[in-house]
Amino acid sequence: MEDLKEKMEPSAEVTENTNAAEESYSLSDDRRVKVLSPGQLVAKRFFRNRLAVTGMVILLAMFIFSFIGGLVSPYGQDEKFYRTDVQAKDFAGIVYNEEFRYTVNDPDLFKSSVHAQTLKAIILGNDKFEYNGINYELEKLSDDAFIVKSGGKVIGTASKELVNSSTQDKLSFDFSLEALKAKTEGENKFNADGKEYTIDGDGVITDKAGTEIAYVSRYIVRAVMADIFFSRELKNQLIDAVESGQDSFEYTDEKGVTAEYKLSYDADNKAWDVKQEIDTKVFDTYSAPSKKHWLGTDRNGMDMLTRLMYGGRISLIIGFIAVFIETIIGVILGGIAGYFGGWIDGLIMRIVDIFYCIPGMPFIIIVGAAMDAANLPSLTRMIYLMLILGVLGWAGVARLVRGQILSLREQEFMTATEACGIAPSRRIFRHLIPNVMPQLIVYMTMGLGSMIITEATLSFLGLGVRFPFASWGNIINDVNDTYVLTNYWFIWIPAGVLLLTTVLAFNIVGDGLRDAFDPKMKR
Amino acid sequence: MRKYIIKRLLQSIVILFFVAFIIYALMRCLPTSYVEAMARQKSMQPGSKSYEEWMEQLTVMYNMDGSIVSGFFRWLGSMLRGDFGDSWRWTVPVLKKFNDTVWLSFVMGLISFIFEVLIAIPLGIIAATKQYSKTDYTISVIALAGISLPTFFFASLLKLVFSVKLGWFDLYGLVGRNYDQLSTFGQLLDKGHHLVLPIITLVVISMGGLMRYTRTNMLEVLNADYIRTARAKGLSEKKVIYHHAFRNTLIPIVTLLGGTLPSLFSGALITETLFGIPGIGFASYYSMIAGDIPFSMFFMVFTAILTLLGNLIADVLYAVVDPRVRIA
What we know:
The complex is a heterodimer.
Chain A: H1 2-8, E1 14-16, E2 33-35, H2 38-48, H3 50-72, E3 82-96, E4 101-104, H4 112-124, E5 128-131, E6 134-142, E7 145-150, E8 153-159, E9 162-165, H5 173-185, E10 189-192, E11 195-199, E12 204-207, E13 212-217, E14 219-223, H6 232-244, E15 248-252, E16 258-266, E17 271-283, H7 304-340, H8 342-357, H9 360-374, H10 378-408, H11 412-419, H12 424-460, H13 472-476, H14 482-487, H15 489-517
Antiparallel strand pairs in A: 1-2, 3-14, 3-17, 4-8, 5-6, 6-7, 7-8, 9-13, 10-11, 11-12, 12-13, 15-16, 16-17
Helix pairs in contact in A: 2-15, 3-7, 3-15, 7-8, 7-10, 7-12, 8-10, 9-10, 10-12, 12-15
Chain B: H1 2-28, H2 34-44, H3 51-61, H4 68-80, H5 94-129, H6 134-148, H7 151-165, H8 184-222, H9 225-232, H10 237-260, H11 269-275, H12 280-290, H13 293-321
Helix pairs in contact in B: 1-13, 2-3, 5-6, 5-8, 6-8, 7-8, 7-11, 8-10, 9-10, 10-13, 11-12, 12-13
């Protein structure tokens, strides 16, 4: 379609003016035709190429996305997001005590070897036994509680009921003994250490002032970590849960932290495991796309879309500056070589050969590794990266400019400038370079695309742009982790698509520009 | 012709000398060199000498004493005697490591080169003969997309689709888990199976350029006078295109392809690294990261030689294929 229309149009240089008001001019009248400047012609040819215009629109969209998007986005480039996550951690173990536990008053007499003898005597139903030549007596309080004496003196207790402190203070032996006695005998008052205490049916022991001191229970609640302290209330809750067969409950401790406790019975150890599920603030990493984060969040809990915008900015800026550097060096050296010729040309072209010959990618990888080792700050790194990319690329520009100038300087208009006595620098930069501009612009546009790819590849390998800066390459870098590759498409596919589209758009526009600049070629 | 080649070869030697020097200087400037890392590691061992002592000993051992210039000439001297030293990263002689890895890269490169040619040239010609048609636009966009596609992104996509979702291929490596239990033929097949994705990557990434080049040249040829003559004679369009035009298009294409032949040996650095294919690109990437001077130097100089050789071949071929071209 498009080509047909173009073929039918008579000439691109002169367009017939069909304005009705001017139809009165005679056929040979100059005013009848509208003369376009070369620039307008190029623009006209360019905009006729639909593909190139599409590319241009894409590029424009990318620029808006990258440069304005960052301003519009409500989030910052390295703003981290948090989410509350329920983390279950091992909290406690609860055992219903089925064994005799011992409290010791006299450690010399009531040693662990005596504990075993005591147990033996209890099982056999003896009320006294002899061990190592010492006589011991057992005083039975109930089936599950005994007082161990030696020579009439109480040396310890053996009991399945346990006296636990409700505070963080240790209990004296006397207190434990009296509490145990009171509990087994069903009394509600006892005296220990010269003070009076009351004990209720649940085994809770309070002092005269009514504050809880201790409690007697057959459940042992053991903390998993040494720094966990159970309040009596929590213990009660736990024991209630165990007794009633609940498997979870909520509890708010004195600091106001609410946590859910989950109980599970472990038949092997005959114990209940308690897990505390507490809300913890963590980085919102790899969260899926949502209303708040349209493209999810990345490894560091940063908004992906915002990262992409800033990443585009950096990728484009690096591309532009690097291409700018290579063009400046290339035009100056290529211009000098082409214009002067002779040994200057020979020298510069050998330098060009050398730069052409340096394997670019390996070279930059080594530099990247070097920058890694030197621990350069991210910004310095980026500046070096641009410089190196630019310096490595100038040889191509120099060749292009020199080749063009070699043919241009033989043309008549150059002889004319010489005849007019214009200074060489002016001749090069005012008369030759502008004539190289078309090829140069095409080269630069295409070069931008490949520069962006090179930068992205380096960043992908972890040798280019570094955190906290984003670039499309280092965003995709996460894909090196196979888990991310498999599970989090939103981390790397959008960046890749943006990268591909941008580079493609640069190439299409470059292509369109070449066609527009070079009318001889076709159309 | 012979004079021209000799002249070019002599020029190449001078260029190589400078390239090698620049690379050597760069490698020596690495702030944390391999030697330092090694010394630090050794001095960490219990009952070891101090870091400084190790440093002193290792510097001499690895020929790192002396200035960059003297170091370079020492490297040059031993290189000219055919001694490339031992790779530090791989702890085998450089030439052995090279020989172990280069053939894999070559095979991979050659296969993808063949596919590239088989796909790109016909498509380029079709695009040119149907200029401005839908086919032409499609092919042009595909070609541009191939050029614009970042290797690592395309490789990751392939991995996601074919390795993760479909499970047809492994994510990394050249051989499968049960490689050792396979017969010789089975081993060959296993390797081939692992090379499929890397080769697809290489073909797709590289064919765009050739496609465009073919299209441009074919268009140029189709505008030439002798094509008009052929058409005027009343030859069939098929004969005009495949007999007259195609042969002439081949001139620049053969030149280009001849020029790329040497680069088949230089491996595919990014692709091999991404797919964990232990070719020359893979080996050199890890050498460069580790600051392994002998192997990196060898690889980079080797690549530079291949580039020069490619240019020379292209120029010579140009004159050989096209009798109108004279070179002096």
